[in-house]
Amino acid sequence: MLQGTRIIERADNAYPYPLLIKRLLDMPSVRALNQEIIYRNTRRFTYAQFLGRARQLASGLSRMGVRPGDTVAFMDWDSYRYLEAYFAVPGIGAVLHTVNVRLSPDQIRFTMNHAEDTVVFVHQDFIPIVEAIREKVPSVKKWILIKEPGEPETAHTMRFDAEYEEVLALGNTDFEFPDMDENSQATMSYTTGTTGDPKGVYFSHRQLVLHTLSVGMALGNIDPVGKFKAGDVYMPMTPMFHVHAWGLPYIATLMGVKQVYPGRYEPAMLLKLRQEHKVTFSHCVPTILQMLLSAPEAKTTDLSGWKMVIGGAAFTTGLCKQAMDLGMDVFTGYGMSETCPILTISILKPEMLELEESEQVDIRIKTGIAVPLVELKIMDTELNPIPMDNVTSGEICVRSPWCTQGYFKGAQQGKALWQGGYLHTGDVAVRDANGYVRITDRLKDVIKTGGEWISSLEIENLISQHPAVREAAVVGVPDAKWGERPLAMVVVAGESRIGSDDIKTFLMKFVEDGVIEKWALPERILITETIPKTSVGKIDKKVIRVNVQSNG
To answer: Which of 98, 173, 404, 482 has CA atoms 20 to 30 A from the CA of 202?
Structure first.
């Protein structure tokens, strides 16, 4: 042994403190008991009441026979009830299945059977769905109705075993959440894949706690742009069924900030809640932001200072500039269902605040830099890291403590996801010398024409900069000569009257400036009223390709 070398022993006797979701409630139970949680201006609770209700729900479910390992499904809009379930269901060792209510009834039936749900909470708006499938989900033992406060109950023939508030009435406000293994499964949700059946992704207590701490630290360290701090007022605009609303409700609760839950997404209601409660921090997909900015109420609503994380789809230059011109503080967050989900945030460094607006926009719409504890690499097909030259592209591959271990009941799919020891995102990107990642396309959406690759996202971003364009989607369609050629679908804003030739003329500027090659211009440009979307608001390029090919 070398002299002076210290013998490092394993800390086998260290206390194995479990990272459990219930621990996220410790701080707000001390410092935020009088803070408010608001629902659509119909219900108001203090944190003290919320904590009591979460314990009541947990103990009520236990008294109804829910045991550790059972799966409890939730079908609701973004609400205080959902927030209570986020803590109550995993808190007793059960698994919370956040049902994507925008899937088709047959897909919802599939997910319930696949997850083996035993108890299902159903908002009255979704009764027609469960009426159609209840006989086809034999694992479900109890159906619980969620009544909307202040609204008449929907007419139905469904027999429910109880109502939400009745479950709470069975429980105790002083219920103690038990200890358990931190690797116990806590939540489950299903991907909105465009091919095949939805795939189940699942997360443990440990993964959710670490995601909460890391992303909360990253957002709290953005100064002054986009910082999420104790004095903020939080309102989610990402469905709570979609990967825990990006994990932000857990962060907001840990911080003890005022929370506003909007229920069903309606532009007028969202803007009303923003105005009345001075909402300062939100998150959504680009289509929701566009919907807000286009709403008539936006013309009379002060949007300045509203911090908003944009994710789920490409954030275009045109939309970012439109929001910034209204005084909003918008920036990109990136992740996927399999990654809990947040991996990166487009943080602006202090010196970047001195840049011109156009240069700031370029940074805000980038994919960003990895949050703490995320190991992110851009690799070629042989899993070799690519140069950080902002030109060479590869696939984003990641490792983090909160990436899903695989797919529920899908071992083979999980192996493909984790090929080579990294989770493969399927996103093609470049990275600059400062470490900023910029996604250039999805592997499945890259347009291959005449031996060259065209980024559909780049063309969409250029089209978005036309002042009359509200939304754009670009896909590759089969071509006998070139293999594929780009096709664009464009939604114009307001009363604008532009045609495909106007868009082509606009894009020619970028050809002349050397931004894109002439062969990258879309062969066809279709002016349309709507663009197909997935159940979580992303542009559905699979449907576009099928529709275009079917219609010639």
So the answer is: 173
How far is residue 59's CA from residue 172's CA, in Å, rounded to a whole number? 6
In a domain, 121, yes or no: yes
Percent share of the chain, pLDDT over 90: 76
Residue 467 has pLDDT above 70, yes or no: yes
- CATH at residue 308: 3.40.50.12780
Kindly report the backbone phi and psi dihedral angles of residue 376, in degrees, each rounded to the nearest multiple of 5, phi listed first. -115, 125
Active-site position among 84, 116, 182, 338:
338
From the candidates 187, 191, 192, 404, which is the catalytic residue? 191
Same-domain check for residues 463 and 321: no
Q: Which of 469, 381, 362 is nearest to 420 (CA)?
A: 381
From 229, 377, 453, 519, the catalytic residue: 453
pTM for the model stands at 0.86
Beta bridge partners of 539: 533
Instruction: For residue 136, count other CB atoms closer than 10 A to its CB.
Output: 13
Whether residues 208 and 320 fall in one domain: yes
Residue 97 lies in a domain: yes
The closest alpha carbon to 100, from 87, 114, 118, belongs to 114
- Rounded to the nearest 10 degrees, what angle do helices 456-464 and 317-325 cross at? 40
Residue 453 catalytic?
yes
191 assigned to active site: yes
Give the model confidence (pLDDT) of 26-44 as tens digits. Answer: 999 999 999 999 999 889 9
Question: Is residue 409 annotated as a catalytic residue, yes or no?
Answer: no
Number of domains the chain is built from: 2
Answer with the one of 319, 346, 364 that is the final residue of a domain: 364
Active site residue 287: no
> 444, 448, 509, 518: which is the annotated catalytic residue?
448
**pLDDT tens for each residue of 301-331:** 999 999 999 998 889 999 999 999 999 999 9
If asked whether residues 63 and 210 sit together in one domain, one would say: yes
